[in-house]
Amino acid sequence: MPRRGRGFWFSLAIDVLWPVVVLFVRLRVRGKQHVPGNGGVILAFNHLSNADTVAAVVFALMSNRVPRVLAKASLWRMPVFGWVMRSGGHIPVERGTVKASEALRPAVEALRDGACVMVFPEGTFTDDPENWPMKGKSGVARMALESRVPVVPVAEWGTQDLLPRGKILPRLLPRKKIEVVAGAPVDLSDLYDRELTAEVLAEATRRVMAAITTMLSGIRSAQAGSQSA
Asked: Which of 6, 16, 118, 128 supports an S-S bond with 132, CB 3.0-4.6 Å?
């Protein structure tokens, strides 16, 4: 796993949580080959649980990239969390206070500088009763079209069993199975030279969310098939 660029507190958080993941989670990761080894890239995940971020960071590290998390700015003002977020060079977004393009400017600059940026396009946990992804927000599209870096769709499944929504402590036993699967980058090249209208952003967002949903469908279908066999 890469260590350079993680920062002291972010690296410490990883080192503390890694044994927990190894001991209490049966983690299966696929699709790492779709993550470029260098240069800017967006990893776009579905959102089921507060455990998603841990699984997403593990996926990025196993793909040999140190991720920078795009997250609400209030985390930077919290004890301990603030140290970790600043140390890791993560990217705060002040929601509802500035224009979307200005709020995402640090993320676009980081991508142009070669960063690996993690994002949950839904912006919150899905409210779908069967845990399928909701309609995404346009931030991921804006970042992708302004920076012109690959967007890798990644689906997570099982995190909702490890740490159900509304719970503070994870359910460590029995050992939970979590799958994280990435697909090929979403093709947005035909949108690069178009004006960033609401329609263009909506189309790019739709493609990203469709790709994530396809990856999640593959995980869930395979699990259903193995259970019925």
From this structure: 128
Would you call 118 helix, strand, or coil by DSSP? strand
| Sequence-ordered list of residues with C-beta below 8 angstroms from that of 134, at least 6 positions apart, any chain | 122, 126, 127, 128
Give me the sign of the Cα torsion angle 91, 102, 118, 139.
Answer: positive
Whether the model clears a pTM of 0.85, i.e. scores above it, the answer is: yes
CATH number of 8-228: 3.40.1130.10
Helix, strand, or coil (residue 182)? strand
Q: Domains of the chain: which residue ranges?
A: 8-228
What is the DSSP annotation of 22-61?
HHHEEEEEE-GGGS-SSS-EEEEE---STTHHHHHHHHHH
The candidate with the shortest Cα–Cα distance to 142, out of 116, 174, 103, 114, is 103
Q: Outline where the chain has alpha helix (H).
A: 8-24, 52-62, 81-87, 100-103, 105-112, 139-147, 159-162, 198-228
Query: Which tokens belong to 83?
Result: 């140290």
Instruction: Kindly list the distances between the CA atom of residue 180 and the CA atoms of 28, 55, 100, 186, 191, in Å, as whole numbers in the listed order.
Output: 6, 8, 29, 17, 28
Q: What is the Cα–Cα distance from 4 to 65, expressed in whole angstroms?
A: 10
Q: Write out pLDDT tens, residues 44-77.
A: 999 999 999 999 999 999 999 999 998 888 888 8
- Which CA distances in Å does 64 have to 4, 36, 76, 186? 11, 9, 26, 20
d(CA 180, CA 96): 31
